[in-house]
Amino acid sequence: EVQLVESGGGLVKPGGSLRLSCAASGFTFSNFGLNWVRQAPGKGLEWVSSISSSSTYIYYADSVKGRFTISRDNAKNLLYLQMNSLRAEDTAVYYCARGSTSAVGTGTFDPWGQGTLVTVSS
Amino acid sequence: SYELTQPPSVSVSPGQTASITCSGEKLGDKYVCWYQQKAGQSPLLVIYQDRKRPSGIPERFSGSNSGNTATLTISGTQAMDEADYYCQAWDSSTALFGGGTKLTVL
Fold first, then answer.
1. Cβ contact (<8 Å) for A109 and B48?
2. Per-residue pLDDT tens digits for A36-62
């Protein structure tokens, strides 16, 4: 069974940093692109970032560009999101989702993890 | 910047057909996916490449995409289909989601 489990969320002050992790199992991790999508409380889905299977291609939403960094460790089956200079508007549940191929910038988000809540507040 | 627009809410009676639209400029030129999100759960892919159903998704879910509008159709809607539905497409390596449509089955 394909499984994605996020961790690392929590309460952080504005301007602070946090690193999220997503542990994958049940598929050949190095063959798939991966994504982060977030959902603010009571709001819709917002794409955050994508990384191709070999980390060659990386894309970010304008809202996080320059503050967030996506990375992956194919040896450990882990996806990361380093979040710096956090703002109140970054408060959301952060989901990791597998892409449909090794590429990104195309395809689906399937499946999704259960999400981890990040709260940015003083 | 490119945007996808969905109606905030749609209501349907059990057993009837629900249609949820997603509009964007020349959306028919792009592939559209649809995700279902039930309360307190993670999103679930229900339609990809405009009209294809992933394994395990009931046949009552179907999709179409032409011109400026993509449509998710749920035939014979059941109470279990009550959820938020999001369309999604890619534009210049940016993933876009519609604002979401709350489907109420009453």
1. no
2. 999 999 999 999 999 999 999 999 999
B63-91 confidence digits (pLDDT tens): 999 999 999 999 999 999 999 999 999 99
How high is the pLDDT of residue A112? Answer: 98
Q: Has residue A82 got a pLDDT over 90?
A: yes
- Residues in CB range of A80: below 8 A, 6 or more apart: A19, A20, A21, A22, A70, A71, A72, A73
Whether chain A has a CB inside 8 Å of the CB on B57: the answer is no
Q: For B27-66, how does the pLDDT look when each residue is reduced to its tens digit (9 = 90+)?
A: 999 999 999 999 999 999 999 999 999 999 999 999 999 9
The alpha-carbon gap from A14 to the nearest alpha carbon of chain B, in Å, equals 26
Distances (CA, A) of A5 to A113, B8, B26, B45: 5, 30, 36, 17
B95 vs A47, A110, A115: nearest CB: A47
Q: Report yes or no: B7 at the A interface, CB cutoff 8 Å.
A: no
- Enumerate residues 6+ apart whose C-beta is below 8 A from B29: none
Q: Which residues of B touch A40 (CB under 8 A)?
A: none
**C-beta atoms of B45 and A59 within 8 A:** no
DSSP 3-state helix, strand, coil percentages of chain A (rounded to 5)?
Answer: 5, 45, 50
